[in-house]
Amino acid sequence: xIRNKKRVMTIIIVLAILIVFTSIAFAALSTTLNITMNKVTxxxxxxxxxxxxxxxxGVLTATDTNQASCGSATATANAITxxxxxxxxxxxxCAYTFKIQNNGSIAGQISNIEVTKPNSTTxxxxxxxxxxxxxxYKLHYDxxxxxxxxxxxDTINAKSGSTxxxxxxxxxxxxxxxxxxTSDFTQSGFAYKLTYAQK
Length: 199
Hints:
- It is a single chain.
- By secondary structure, the protein is mostly beta strands.
- The chain has one domain (49-198).
- It contains one helix and 15 strands.
- The strands form four sheets. Strands 1, 3, 8, 10, 11, 12 and 14 form a seven-stranded antiparallel sheet that branches. A three-stranded antiparallel sheet has the order 2-5-6, with no helix packed on it.
- A hairpin with a 4-residue loop joins strand 5 (72-75) and strand 6 (80-81).
- The protein starts with a helix and ends with a strand.
């Protein structure tokens, strides 16, 4: 009986020791991994869409260059001013080529084109085309005769590295009437306003 008790006690002690060693073994196999963020920096982005500055000379296409002329315009970052055109015959045209540039890191998109018609003149406006009597005004891409016209939702990509993205835009004023005028007339006050928004 005592022998049995001793045997039972020995078994209990051996089991207790095994349980302790097993837990130590499990504890020895556990691992804790830590991830620590030092800091997160968001780089600043830049918005910089505008005209290339300088003088923009009008290019004349005319039946009689003695009776028609294109002046020069001044381009600042936000405006083209000083456009003066004289047309005489059907088909006469003045074209002003200027550059819109994106020197920022955010792409832009034309969200609105607002066209102001000349004073006291009846005009038909469709997108970036305005027909006022015998004169048609247009904003083209690339060349004066391009059929690709400036439109809402047109985009200009962000600069590439340190190089600005450029879009060439041409403003034309053309005598598109079917008959010659027998008297002088002047259209003044026409304007385009292009609004760019973040794409």
